[in-house]
Amino acid sequence: MRRIVLDTNCLLQALPSRSPYHKIWSEILAGHVSLCVNTEILNEYEEIIARKTNADIAHNVVEAIARLHTTEFLNVYYHFRLIEADADDNKFVDCAVAANAEYIVTNDAHFDILKQIDWPKLTVTTIKEFAKQLK
Question: pTM for the whole thing?
Fold first, then answer.
């Protein structure tokens, strides 16, 4: 099973049923992709989804993620601070390290710095590339 950390904006793109990236959300719900999260990530998901849609939808999405048996909840004990351009993105990096995730799925250019770091080795992919892998 694939283990991923999904950036909030990519989650937003994957939710609508007419999205070309909806396959990602479907695979998460079906238990074929394990979503790695922590409390900080879930809080951001809920905050941003509520801002873009409404509080009920945001709550339902986060609740669905929390109830999945394939969701991996991680406690992050070390903060690497690898992304300086947007320190808020580090919660995804730290979660990916703690989870030994296969990918961080994001379209955010701030994550490009990770390609230059030898350790911890993290693989960053775009939502488009990850969706292609699922087909």
Answer: 0.93
